[in-house]
């Protein structure tokens, strides 16, 4: 069994995936627009992403621009968590992904012997960076 995150955006999925690909060193795969599908959506949705995946370097999640019949609300129930074992890589990733976002917990050493930081990125996605210091 395998579970994956599937992120929903409101028209800026391609922009967000470009940002994540650059920050995480990953590649956008299986990119499909609504124009590629026989789905009844307004013309303004045709160039939006109906499905895409981000893969590489231990990263694999899916994303799309929600269709008009799928209302989006900003929530905090899901966080993407990244576990690393190199503190320099953890700091670099934290700085890249949190740029332009909202910091909840600065990246610093925690009582469980790890660097940990939590933030919401510029696209409203929640992240946790955790780096084991053992």
From TrEMBL:
A Pfam family: 3-dmu-9_3-mt
Xref: PANTHER family: PROTEIN YJDN, PROTEIN YJDN-RELATED
InterPro entries tied to this protein: Glyas_Bleomycin-R_OHBP_Dase, PhnB-like
Sequence intervals crossing the membrane: none
Native source organism of the sequence: Arenibacter arenosicollis
Domain PhnB-like residues, every copy: 3-129
Protein name: VOC family protein
Top-level taxon in the UniProt lineage: Bacteria
